[in-house]
Each structure stands twice: as structure tokens, then as C-alpha cells.
Amino acid sequence: MRAQITSTEPFLSGDLQPPPDKSISHRGLLLALLAEGTSRLDNLSSALDVAATGSMVELFGASLETEGSVTLVESPGIAGLREPDGVLDLGNSGTGVRLGIGVATLVHGVSVFTGDDSLRRRPMGRVISPLQELGASIWGRGGDGMLPVAVRGGGLRSGVVHLRVASAQLKSALLFAALGVDGPVSIVEPTLSRPHTEELFALTEVGFDEDVEEQDGSHRVTVSGPTRPSPFSFRIPGDPSAAAFFVVAASCVPGAVLTVEDLYLGPTRAGFLEILAQMGADLVLGDGQVTVQGGSLEGSEIGGRIIPSLIDEIPILSVAAAMADGVTTIRDASELRVKETNRIETTAGFLRAFGVEVMTLPDGLVIHGGLRPGSLRGNRRRVMANLDHRIAMSAAVLGLLAGGVTEIDGVETVATSYPAFFSDLDRLSSATIHLDGAAKP
């Protein structure tokens, strides 16, 4: 699918209710699977990635029913999980497959995972190896553990696992697996990654301990099993990673005013707001709310311990960098190279389509800013999203801001995380949007 963004006088204003948080939705479904009884998830994400996780949950033995905005998950719990009678196809969902591999260690029998072409190119060894340290029987394809991956449940033992990078996906897979281990399992990260699984554990009577090492700042979380989660009720807040596209857009347009409501604002997800403030954005934060007024931005240095809290927002922060005065340097983000695409290269690629001077580094980017709202209104360019949803949405925002006509191929992937993105962009902005030649209503 192709999107065409036409922009002459860039502007953006209004109120945004972002979609439900995708990361929390995945974890909510999987924890509900592990809890015996009925759990209630209000405001579950409708993204295709989350739907794939829902299908996996059903193949493991739970039933899902929707009542209005509430998804009811009826599950036999850990003791009643069943061997899937088919291959678990997670589509494009890296979170779903990595967390699912951890859950599969609790299931008697063999579980086989696969995904779409993009997901089958992403290395799974980074989740397989830590689980194997605890005794898991897992087989992947090739040296990097590519999909398909097979997991034989059982056989895990207590231990301490040190993760090379802070990763909420890897940590969560290990935490789910730890629920079935007889004894303590500790996961040590170089810094705290998103704690959504721990936040949900607190709702389900799963005990855990956390420690921060004073000398190096590393973070340790320990679960002593075996333990059984209790069913729970939870409302999923708005997704800051989705809201970031519009917050950045509004920050770059003088006179723009945008208010985002019902937003998850935990510290491990608000890194992009900290960087925007560092760049000079006018932001006001309230209880689950962000209001931004547009203005001018300055280039910045982005790196270090803040990176895990904004790793998904780097493509859209690169748009802010392109619109800012001066140079922005992003470091310590090598994790981008194993996302849906090599996001260091694909981010540089779409920026160059707009004439932005950018240099790639092994772990980041150097971006020379200087674009102005509407400064490219007489130009036309084409961007390949490479079926990466964040690249597609970031390029669309830059198309709005820079002006002119922007054609983006491969935008169907946006539905994996933010199905209403183009509708929201059409409603809030001055751009004219066509999808596959048909004007947006």
C-alpha cells in the first residue's frame, strides 16, 4: 500500500487520544493466560501485533471474549496450558514471539514459532541463549536462532542471568519462564528497561524483589518460583510510542497546540519527552496528559542510559533533529539494527529522501538539521518504508512538516501498531492524505 502526503502550509492542532499501549497489551494477554480464572483487560490494543499474541494465547488453551471495550481472558492457568496443535504464527510481532518463547518453557510438549518474512530475518538468539542458561530446550534456525523456533517445555532451573543490553522483551520472557522454576531466578540488566511486566505482576500477587547496584547502576529483578498469578482486572493506558509522532510534529510547527490524553507516563517510556524538552520543546505534563506548543528546536546529544527509554522513538526523534537548528548526535543505540528493519540505515534512508545530511554510526546517527516547516513545498520525494511501521509513520510526519508531496510505499505495516494513524494525521493536520490513490475521508 502507498500513502501520498501533500503539504503546503504545515500545521497541526487538536486533542489526541492515542491507541492503547501495545507493549502493555502483549504482557496483559500473556499474564492473563498464566493466571487461572478470568482476567479483564479494558482498552486492549487493536493492533495486528497484539491480535497475533491473542491468537497465540488461545492456542495455549485460553479463551478470549470481547464485551464492549473489555476483553475477558478465561484460562486454565500455568498447570493447564496445552501444547499448541498448530504452528504459532506471530506475524510481524517481535514482542509477541520473544515473550511467547518464554511462556512456552512452561508448556508440556513442543511449541513451534514462526512469523512473516521480516520477523523470520530477526535474530532470536538473544532470547534463546538466556533461557538456555536456565536449562531451556530451544532450537532455532542458523547461528542466530532465526525463526522457526521450537521450544520443549520444562527443565528450567534457578540461576542468575546477566543481559548484555537492557531489553524489556528479554527480561519479560525470562520473568514469565521464572514462574515455573523451583527456586529463585534473577535477571540483571545494565540499566532498567520498561518494567511493564513487573507492574502487572504487582496486580497478580506474584512476588518479586528489585535491587539497583550503586556502583554501576545495573538493575536486578528476582522471582522465586514456582508461583501462580491470580486473575486480575486492568485498564490499558494510551501508548506513548504512538503519541510521539504527533508530539514531535506539533513541537516543530510554530503556533501548533496539541493535547494528548490518557497517556502512560512512566519514567521508562518518557525518555522522548525529556529529549524534546532538552531540544527546547514547550511541553506541559500532567496526570496522564501532555500539552505541546510548537516552536523551534535545537540539535542535541542523545545517548547513554536514556536510550532504553526511547529506543522505539528514535526514528521520530530523528525527524525532530532534521527540523532543528544544528547537529544532533545519537549514540549507544545499536539495538536499532535488530528491529523490524536495520533502523539506523532505514532512518538515514528516509531522511536523505528529504535532502537531510545524515551520517550513520555503528550505534547511531549524526543528523544535520535546518529544515523549516514548508521549506520543501515545491518538491516531491518517494520513501520505501520497508514494511517497518515506525519508518512509515516517521516519514509521513516529516512529509507533513517539510511540505511538498511525499509518497511512502509499504504503509500497510502501520496497522501492526497504530491502525488509526493516518486517520488521526488527517484529522489533526493540514496535510492531504491519499492511500492507494483514494482520498482519506
TrEMBL record:
Coiled coil: none annotated. Phosphoenolpyruvate binds at K22, G94, R122, Q169, R343, R390. Keywords: Amino-acid biosynthesis, Aromatic amino acid biosynthesis, Cytoplasm, Transferase. InterPro entries: Enolpyruvate_Tfrase_dom, Enolpyruvate_Tfrase_sf, EPSP_synthase, EPSP_synthase_CS, RNA3'P_cycl/enolpyr_Trfase_a/b. It is an enzyme of class 2 (transferase). It comes from the Bacteria. Its main location: cytoplasm. It catalyses: 3-phosphoshikimate + phosphoenolpyruvate = 5-O-(1-carboxyvinyl)-3-phosphoshikimate + phosphate. Residues 12-425 form the Enolpyruvate transferase domain. Pathway: Metabolic intermediate biosynthesis; chorismate biosynthesis; chorismate from D-erythrose 4-phosphate and phosphoenolpyruvate: step 6/7. Its EC number is 2.5.1.19. 3-phosphoshikimate binds at K22, S23, R27, S167, Q169, D312, K339. It is found in: Cytoplasm. GO terms for biological process: amino acid biosynthetic process; aromatic amino acid family biosynthetic process; chorismate biosynthetic process. One of its GO terms (cellular component) is cytoplasm. The active site is at D312 (proton acceptor). Residues 1-20 are annotated as: Disordered. GO terms for molecular function: 3-phosphoshikimate 1-carboxyvinyltransferase activity. Catalyzes the transfer of the enolpyruvyl moiety of phosphoenolpyruvate (PEP) to the 5-hydroxyl of shikimate-3-phosphate (S3P) to produce enolpyruvyl shikimate-3-phosphate and inorganic phosphate. Monomer. This is 3-phosphoshikimate 1-carboxyvinyltransferase. It comes from Ferrimicrobium acidiphilum DSM 19497. The lineage of its organism: Bacteria, Bacillati, Actinomycetota, Acidimicrobiia, Acidimicrobiales.
